[in-house]
Amino acid sequence: MEANKTDAAQRLKDRAYGLFDEFRNAYRQEWLRLENNERMYRGDHWYDVPLTDVNEPRPVTPVIQSTVENVSAELMDQLPEAIIRPEGAANPRTAKVVEALIRRNHDTGGYAVEYQKLIHDLLVGGYCVQEVGYDPAANMGLGGAFLRYVDDRSILFDPLSTDIQEGRAVFKMSLKTRQWLMDRYPDKYPLIGDDPYAAADAPRDEVIQGDRRDCLLLLEYWWKTPTDREGIFAVHMALLCGGVVLEDSRDVKPQGYFAHGQYPFILTPLYARKGSALGFGVVDLFEKQQRYSDKLDQIVLKNAFMASHNKLLVTEASGFDEEDLKDWSKEVHRGESLNGITWFSTPPLPAYILSYVDKIRKDIKEESGANESSRGNVSYGVTAASAIEALQQASNKRARMASARLHEAFRQAVGMEIEVEREFNFYLRPVIIEEDGEQKQVLFDSAMLTQSTPNGQGLPMEFYISVKAAKHTPFTAAAQNELMLQLIQAGVLAPEDAVELMIFEGSEQVLKKMAQARTRQATQS
Q1: CA-closest candidate to residue 115, choices 351, 455, 403, 519
Q2: 64 and 40 Cβ atoms separated by less than 8 Å
Q3: Cα angle: 53, vertex 207, 170; to 5 degrees
Q4: Torsion-angle region of residue 233: left (phi > 0), alpha (psi -120 to 50) or beta?
Q5: Is the backbone of residue 5 left (phi > 0), alpha (psi -120 to 50) or beta?
Q6: How many CB atoms lie under 10 A from the CB of residue 370?
Q7: Reported pTM
Q8: How many CA atoms lie within 13 A of 398 on its CB side?
Q9: For 410-452, how does the pLDDT look when each residue is reduced to its tens digit (9 = 90+)?
């Protein structure tokens, strides 16, 4: 029995490291691209240009950095929220409880911070990755599902597949110190050997370079195996380090790590890349414009430096001493002939060069979706929320496209998160919901998400609840509320009906108080 287990671990190790070698070789150019994009974002892109003159200027105008941050701000305003709705004859209260549970998970897990990191990777690197899992230590030991950001430099998908769920495996990498491994795997730590991958493959900070000789590369290896049901696969996970299998999920859950049978990662590309599941980002599209813009700035600055130091040409026949002419404190200089002295000034650059530099920067902003209107910098006396929103909607098409991709990825991730809660939650967890204008504490039980067909087959979640991602931006909410007020003034809607359609926190409490006021008036009359 022990020999069989050892043979299985050896086969697992051989297959995992064999695939990892294949994947990492395919990703070498991708890692260089991601590193280059981060440098472009930071404005550190002169590093690969040979230095011909130690005094030459190397200006950097952060056009791409400004563009990314402006679009990021636009996307942060559209931070998605999970909206859970009942399907068919399902219990509406179940949807409310699940929605409250998911929002609690995102609040405690700090999803807003994770979302901000996702936006950065999406715009700069061209794709972002989030992981769905279950943390038994969350909520003071009650457990809870999570959505987490994954650094795009720390994960490898099958380079031969355009759909990550169809890939042969997924690798997630992280650097761990020997002490970290010794504390968590004391029995297996003595078997861990030298790690040839530690320095080269682990994601590193390009600014802070610490001593990594004490670190080893921990591999999180995900793969799928077929089941008895046609077309259905089981997903498994193993942890490997230094040629040793530290954990194998099949020891605890041989039927599969997750019941949903999917890799627990959601990949979101920004601009599609043919033949790959990955994508291109803003930097890839506008890198050349940024480099040309900074090169033109260098030419302009060189010209300005040269023009600020006019040269004095002195011949031997002039009879003037060069050092004497350099002394600007003297009022009298002696020589033979002024014909031997000539000022040589640098001619100014054509005016069209300066206008062209400005044009390149404006083109980057306009084409990337970081223009004035998308940032709310409207003029001509535009003050109505609906008008501002209309201008923004017309100008930020790229930002809206990115937002649509992020929202769809969020919807998929939340659906997977609910499946994880249904499978792993073992405790009754209290959540707060609103009913009839009042806040009530109820208990979430995973049994709420368990329904079966007459033959005993479990129903997928989508059969009785649906997940949507929604977020009203401040201008969208203001425009909606402004419209409702206009309809009240026109007599089209009653105040109660308008409040139901308005977007603001506490609307249910307002409706409750309005109903109470009507009851008091009816009693008094």
Answers
A1: 403
A2: yes
A3: 125
A4: beta
A5: alpha
A6: 26
A7: 0.78
A8: 23
A9: 999 999 999 999 889 888 888 888 777 678 888 888 777 776 5
